[in-house]
Amino acid sequence: MTENEITLALIQSLKDGRTQDFQHILDELQPYDIAVQYRHLPEKHRERFLLHLTVRQLTELMQELHRNDQVRLLERMSVDQSTKVLDLMDNDDLVSLLSDLEPTMIEELLSRMNREESSYIQKTMNYPPETAGRIMNNRYVWIPRHYTIREAIDKIRDFAEIAEYLNYLYVVDEDKKLLGVVSYKDLILGELDEQIDDVMYTRVVKVDALTDQEEVAAIISRYDFITLPVVDTENRLLGIITVDDVIDVVLQEANEDIEKLSASGKSIDFQTPPFVAAYRRLPWLILLLFIGLISGGIISRFEDTLQTVVALAFFMPMIAGMTGNTGTQSLAVVVRGLVGQKPDKKGTFKLILRELWVGIIIGVTCAVLILLIAYVWQGSLVLGLVVGSSLLLTLIIGTLAGTVIPLILYRLKIDPAVASGPLITTINDILSLLIYFGLASLFISRLM
Amino acid sequence: MTENEITLALIQSLKDGRTQDFQHILDELQPYDIAVQYRHLPEKHRERFLLHLTVRQLTELMQELHRNDQVRLLERMSVDQSTKVLDLMDNDDLVSLLSDLEPTMIEELLSRMNREESSYIQKTMNYPPETAGRIMNNRYVWIPRHYTIREAIDKIRDFAEIAEYLNYLYVVDEDKKLLGVVSYKDLILGELDEQIDDVMYTRVVKVDALTDQEEVAAIISRYDFITLPVVDTENRLLGIITVDDVIDVVLQEANEDIEKLSASGKSIDFQTPPFVAAYRRLPWLILLLFIGLISGGIISRFEDTLQTVVALAFFMPMIAGMTGNTGTQSLAVVVRGLVGQKPDKKGTFKLILRELWVGIIIGVTCAVLILLIAYVWQGSLVLGLVVGSSLLLTLIIGTLAGTVIPLILYRLKIDPAVASGPLITTINDILSLLIYFGLASLFISRLM
Predict the structure, then answer these.
(1) A129-132 — which CB contacts under 8 Å span 24+ positions?
(2) Domains of chain A and any CATH numbers
(3) Which residues form the CBS domain (chains A, B) (predicted)?
(4) pLDDT for the residue A390
């Protein structure tokens, strides 16, 4: 059945009151598909649709909706329903939802929830955003070391409905300190009477709750793990992070890099209303407007030079543009490179040296090209030489600026991506104008 | 033990010929850690290190190395060793390695491999790059529908070493057509004598082998799957795609977007030598150089205007820069938005209308600001009005250009990210100069 056919079948079964048929269709749908159906459904059918969902299905639906729809659904449900749904929701999804609500609303919702769950949620929400503690959940299975494989399998069976993934069991002592990990492969390949102690793996890869989520993503993708345990400073097991959340983290971090590189403002998507989008973009633009006026100030200093040789103005946008472009290129290489690896001092020096060479190669190539063009176009060899040597210098400096500025920010523990493309472009504009008009003024007598 | 302590212990055990101790240390290391140790090891110890690895450890090491190191290791191994390693390697990793080798080398390596494996590899390599077929592997477990849960568990036990993840078993008929899927949760919760037929899930989410890898990543992250089956047009099961590869795809696609947005050239990382990096960046820069000269041509057309009112030159870089910046912002919003959703005609129209509004709001704000600044700085209201209204127009047009150009490319099935920031910036440069000098020429008599 296509999506539309399913929608029609669902509506029909709701209209006819055929509850069993309705459940039959839903049973075959993934949570994501249930959410798609809910969004497809005309408003007038939604009330009845929700009435016929089990608490588990309501929870699954909840977890797949966008933030606005989640809040609306929350308001639609009865107090009893919403409490059950919150109890059942994955902790990490719930924390993410609560983080966006009003404090009084958070308190009210938490007070209704199962005590154990709500205290876990509160603990999680105390960790700073974008850390391991904030995206962990408690849907894992733990066992003591003296268990046999048979006992471990029994425990898995009891928790199969609740645990998010069953790929690993975590072995802890009486203080919940993490001792080891057992994979379900070990369980399948071992003998039922063998003790967990003998099959567990003790060199556990784990992260502290305060680890940055980008680092967490790097570890999970490096080791190809499905889940990663989170511990406190005493090595007590606090929760696990699952690979599906890591994909979200990778996407989010890449989007943040692009937002910053393009200075396009935070979280603007296709649904953002125009005033909000403009409001988020304006601060950057106004900053860049003022920096752009510095270029104007520089040109006004060279007013006489420009008045004498107006042809100098013809090459101004090209030189400024090229310097900005090469800076943006270097910036992008550095920002993305830093995602994968953290260079030490030697590596940083090597990288700057590499970019210096790149700047020289690019500079010489483009300078020779523009020298010829300027000579042919304006018939003045001196003008060609001034334009060419300016371009050579500004390309080298622009390339280095695009490399060194993000690296300095990185050393200062500031996200290097805030040195956005537009910012580098504007700074390089200023540098290039200074060099260009400076050189031109030196040779002004020959240019006339 | 820290990484360095492990390295020292490994070297010591190799020197003393304590093979058992050596293996003891290795047993506790993850494949990624073995690779880290290998890279740490001084060249003179590597030979002996490799000699002491089992074939399985060699394979794990191989899979974790960078391409250059992989090729070097391949050359170092004996023919017998390398054949065994290739047979054991995950298909997707092997395909990715082979894709970068010479055709004669590929043929030679494949001819030595296990017949079944090499024919699977050849089939995989026939799919276009960046499709599901290219990143799938055959390390999954399949069962016929008439199996009982007990038989299924026995089969899992037989294949536990080979299968990459055991989260799902795939149920196929005698033609290998995909009938359903069973999760290990179903196996754990079911009765041993129950038939697979009764517990399997038949509405399987699957992809065709020609599906784009970006689409595959979207499906896996949408459904929070660990693996996703790949079928041919006849619904025959060809392989599975695993979540760890999807993380790599997401990272790769984000990097490609940033490379294109910044026009920074393909695959430049910290290790790329300067000549290669310069060679990859130059084509873009030379193209942008020529486009930049068009700006120069426009200015030369307005030589008289500029000669009369040199102050016009002061605002040139700011206007061109701002138009480029707003274009880059819109571009980034569109390119990243398209990763998550594919707007239909109505959505596209709404988006363009939204950006038009954004352009107007941004334009009015900045225009009023610059009108005041220009008036105060240069003391001419007419100049202020010319600069302000130019900025208003160019910001609206620049915002629209940054939105419409990538959307048109997207409709033409060209990757919208090729409309790079530098390209949009340069095009917006030209548009803004035309408008600015055009308006200035109209009011030239009042500006003098």
Answers:
(1) A129/A99, A130/A212, A130/A213, A130/A214, A131/A209, A131/A210, A131/A211, A131/A212, A131/A213, A132/A207, A132/A208, A132/A209, A132/A210, A132/A211, A132/A212, A132/A213, A132/A216, A132/A230, A132/A241
(2) 3-135 (1.25.60.10), 142-244 (3.10.580.10), 274-447 (1.10.357.20)
(3) 136-199, 200-258
(4) 93
